[in-house]
Amino acid sequence: MAWISKWSVFVAPLLKVLRSEAPQMRLEVRTEPRNHFELLASGEVHFSLTGMEPTAEGQYRRLLIAQSGIVCMMSADNPLAEGELTLERYLSASHGLVSMTGKGPGHIDERLAELGHQRHLALRLSNFMTAADFCDTSDLLFVLPEIVARRVALGRNIVLKEVPIELMMSPINFFLYWHERYHQDPMCRWVRQRVLQVLSE
């Protein structure tokens, strides 16, 4: 069974259940920067766990996994770690961007453009889990979903701060998606039941 996901924070607890109940199942988790819905449509993967939404309606089913606000992650040694993170101070910094598809601007860049601003992007990554490595050893700032930031920052010399009020946004919804063709598939139905089990725990 193949998944496309950057969210090991969600997939790791599920793997424990799958290994316990179906030890012969092989789970392939793909994290390359690709359009998740193209992979679902082509049948390359069975599930996608993402905060993105498809442009084509009707061919995907989904299950809400979690909701999360956003936070700004930086080294505890960064001068911006002290005091309120205003928009002016935020724009004075260099930034890292995690891009799920490997192209295009991020939501923060789109919001800044609406406000007539642009930030200096010094680094683009394709995986949220590596952002903390760069925060540890540089002056870069990353804006991440809080549920992910708290996981990757654990045990590191990193602080999480509220984003400037001008950049606040509605909570991000994370969904498990699957293609309509697999909706009645016995194996996929079983996996979805195990996902609900993990969520309830």
Walkthrough of the structure:
With 201 residues, the chain is of the alpha/beta class. The protein folds into 2 domains: 2-66 and 172-200, Periplasmic binding protein-like II (D-Maltodextrin-Binding Protein, domain 2), CATH 3.40.190; 70-167, D-Maltodextrin-Binding Protein, domain 2 (3-Layer(aba) Sandwich). It contains 7 helices and 10 strands. The chain has helices at residues 8-21, 36-42, 87-91, 107-114, 131-136, 146-152, 186-200; strands at residues 2-5, 28-30, 47-50, 60-68, 70-75, 94-98, 120-125, 141-145, 158-161, 172-179. Helix 1 crosses helix 7 (186-200). The two termini are 23 Å apart. The mean pLDDT is 87.
Summarize the structure.
The protein is an alpha/beta fold and 201 residues long. It has 7 helices and 10 strands. The protein has 2 domains: 2-66 and 172-200, D-Maltodextrin-Binding Protein, domain 2; 70-167, Periplasmic binding protein-like II (D-Maltodextrin-Binding Protein, domain 2), CATH 3.40.190.10.
Keywords:
single chain, 201 residues, alpha/beta, D-Maltodextrin-Binding Protein, domain 2, 2 domains, 5-stranded mixed sheet, 7 helices, 10 strands
